[in-house]
Amino acid sequence: MAPRPADIAKSVELMLLRPRATDADCAALCAQARALHVAAVCVPPTHVPGAAEALRGSDVKLVALISHPLGADRPPVKARACRQALEDGAQEVEVVVDLARFASGDPNHVRDELRLCGRTAREARPEAIVRAVIDTAAFDDRTLRLLARAVAAGGADMLVTSTGLAPEPPDALDVELMREELGAGIALKAVRAVRAPEEAIALLAAGANRIGAPTADLLGAARG
């Protein structure tokens, strides 16, 4: 028997990733999220005020995507963006780390930028959740372990496996590797265009706490 949508909906986050997504697209995604009672909606900062209004009174969290998708902004710019997004109504921020600096041999940059973003975010909203976005497809297993340690040292509440735009989305093995390195103290979100509930269940079984997807197709499949 296929799992019911309610069994996995609260592990799913719908993500507004299209570069030309309009206000109407954002409103439609928020309406779908409310109807399905998913965990969260993730949107770029420009859409945060509208999404906050659309989700008001619902059980769906609002997450702002900061420095998406490259993570190439300077740390103070990211920190200010975090503050603004939280003041605009987001409850959580998802910060793409500077993978170019990390690849250049500077893991402390990742640690330090996350610490700054976390400190600034919690000044704006003490209960704010701060996530760190990496791309597991960009590195080998050894380097991913080092990156996960840098994220943990930066005080992030959650590690996110992909921007959602990577050519090779993470699979269950990536999730298992990250979960092994992070332990139980940091949440883990697997970002993948999941089309069936069985795919979602496999990622959750591998150690993911959340699944980020651009559509709710998997919940429709479960409903059927």
Low-confidence stretches: none
CATH superfamily: Aldolase class I
Strand portion: 15-25%
Mean pLDDT over the full residue set = 93
Q: How many whole angstroms does the radius of gyration measure?
A: 16 Å
How many separate domains make up the residues? 1
Question: What is the CATH third-level topology name?
Answer: TIM Barrel
CATH class descriptor: Alpha Beta
Shape: globular
User: What would you call the structural class?
Assistant: alpha/beta
Features:
eight-stranded parallel β-barrel; 8 strands; alpha/beta; 10 helices; TIM Barrel; single chain; globular; 224 residues
Give an account of the 3D structure:
With 224 residues, the protein is α/β, with parallel strands linked by helices. It has a single domain (5-223), classed as TIM Barrel, CATH 3.20.20.70. Helix content is 46%, strand content 16%. The chain has an 8-stranded parallel barrel with strand order 1-2-3-4-5-6-7-8, surrounded by 7 helices. Strand 6 (158-160), helix 8 (172-182) and strand 7 form a beta-alpha-beta unit. Helix 4 runs parallel beside helix 6 (107-124), helix 6 runs parallel beside helix 7 (141-153) and helix 7 (141-153) packs across helix 8 (172-182). The chain is globular. The termini are close together.
